[in-house]
Amino acid sequence: LSDGPLSGRHVLVTSGPTHEPIDPVRYIANRSSGAQGTALAAALRDLGARVTFVTGPASVPPPPGVQVVRVETAREMLEAVQAALPAEAAIFAAAVADWRVANATGQKMKKDGSGRAPALEFAENPDILATVSQMAEGRPRLVVGFAAETHDVEAHASAKRARKGCDWIVANDVSPATGIMGGTENAVIILDAQGAEHWPRMGKDAVARQLAARIATALTEGE
Ligand code: C5P
């Protein structure tokens, strides 16, 4: 539907987990499936947007009809995002690893027979959302972050919005009892400069469609 409200507009979406290598065969990861980011990219495409989809190793396939850029690590994701800009909107749905292994080895680590286990050291990864939110030049007009929290969801998400400098935060409660992480449904709170909007629990596809519509409204308002 190239004649939708987002026709001709470039939108960037990050999605999926990142993998941070320990050695050539082992890595640190997280449980993100990429489902919400994938649904969002498809919904934005359906509104006519030209979508660049920067994805870590997700367990769901990327949607058809978008420009897919596959990455493994947080640092690769940042580079891919910077290479894909400019965009009118950037939506950061990826579950980026906060830390990478600082003492990763180029060869497979071997047991040395001493019975001692290796110690991993960590280094902080770049914050892609904060980096793009705080760009002095060429910042997308709309920058949206996600916040997965297990308690005090609204307060933490509101603090996150201020700290990172993004326009909206889409917050959800990922405590195990909700079944949201890795599940098919989501219940989100949208925080923007106006305040907090609590959306009812619905399928991730429905969240994606409503979010895409809200993004289209924000980008076309006043034109
Ligand atoms: O700080 P936290 O990881 O909870 O923030 C989540 C939001 O920040 C998500 O939108 C995520 O995609 C983004 N993020 C990022 N780069 C990081 C960490 C988080 O873009 N290194």
From TrEMBL:
Pathway: Cofactor biosynthesis; coenzyme A biosynthesis; CoA from (R)-pantothenate: step 2/5; Cofactor biosynthesis; coenzyme A biosynthesis; CoA from (R)-pantothenate: step 3/5. The keyword Transferase does not apply. It catalyses: N-[(R)-4-phosphopantothenoyl]-L-cysteine + H(+) = (R)-4'-phosphopantetheine + CO2; (R)-4'-phosphopantothenate + L-cysteine + CTP = N-[(R)-4-phosphopantothenoyl]-L-cysteine + CMP + diphosphate + H(+). CTP binds at residues 98, 108, 126-129, 146, 160, 164. It comes from the Bacteria. Residues 6-217 form the DNA/pantothenate metabolism flavoprotein C-terminal domain. Keywords: Decarboxylase, Flavoprotein, FMN, Ligase, Lyase, Magnesium, Metal-binding, Multifunctional enzyme. This is Coenzyme A biosynthesis bifunctional protein CoaBC. The gene is coaBC.
